[in-house]
Amino acid sequence: MTSLTALQQDLSLGTDYEVLAQRFRPIFQKIAETALQREQQRELPYEPIQWLKQAGFGAVRVPVQYGGAGASVPQLFQLLIELASADSNVPQALRGHFAFVEDRLNAHRDHSQTHWFERFVAGELVGNAWTEVGDVKIGEVITRLYQDESGRWTVSGKKYYTTGSIFADWFDLFAQIDATKQNVIAAVRTSHPNVKIEDDWDGFGQRTTGSGTATLHEVEVDPENIIDFDSRFKYQTAFYQLVLLSVLAGTAHAAVAEFSRQVKARTRVFSHGNADRVDQDAQVLQVIGLASAQAYAAEATAIRAAEAAQRAYEAHFAHADQREALEQQANIAAELESAQAQVAIAPLVLQLTSDLFNALGASATSSQKSLDRFWRNARTAASHNPLIFKQRIIGDYAVNGTEPVYVWQIGGGSKQQ
Question: What PANTHER family does its record include (predicted)?
Fold first, then answer.
């Protein structure tokens, strides 16, 4: 077990999960009751996210002494799986928020983050704004921070895939200081008059995560909210992936539950079936049973991977004479285990959300039922961070001991077409 510093009282090492979850389960139920309507009408979940804000959901990882719940990383992702079972779009919309919270939890080791903890406890949320599209090459950052002669900082740029920012109070904005070319995170208020956020995400799944375009023009940034990107918490890529794994596991549970309801309610049977009632047909029950087992495996795998991220968090607070070696190994494990979990979970969930249709007839394809939403949402979540690259990284470590890449970017290659 990691030997922690005297800051242990400032850490989030876990709480009673059932007590914590009971705070939010009534809200999850309310969210589930309107999830289908939002899916069919493409309504963004403003109200559900407001319910979560008011209940303190965004502060579950904040240490107890600062007003949070002190939840561990696995407990956070267990909650996100439950939330994803209600509406898979909502936890993904909070992905950027929880990553920024995790970064501030790590930063608290060296510099007090009380001001951020107070904001999280007050219900303030942070959205993601990292990715640039268009004519941008790998490693290039178009979003720039400028400082005028008076010392005033402003940022200008355009981001896409700004998941959750349309619901948030802040941007977690990846940018570059124009004068020095230093990569930084700028925490910027989304309410600034020179900020424009568009709901123009056009994916066929996860359509209500608020993942559209954000444009900023000469938006002022407080110097204290400019953060050196190199200081970012090292298991961040693993953490981002764990959110998607929670989305997939929750989607799997929701699909099993909905198809089970459809089977129970179905009155028409096939002449070449095995029973007079669909809910008594052995082969239909086998379909549901297999999918349920796959959903169980997806959840168990995601939580196991989250335990590695918790160890990386704790290693960051180890005694100085142990820290470097412990952190390196813990961060390697966090990255690899999240990748292994991704490679295992994604095919399981994609298979079950497709194979469940074998339990029903052609009526299951009715657009009114929208049963395809589970596969579409799973396919979209699973398309983040391509599996083929994660498989190679895992194999390269297993065979050659090659340390995984912790931060990666996307952009134009050397051969532009």
Answer: FLAVIN-DEPENDENT MONOOXYGENASE, OXYGENASE SUBUNIT HSAA, MEDIUM-CHAIN SPECIFIC ACYL-COA DEHYDROGENASE, MITOCHONDRIAL-RELATED
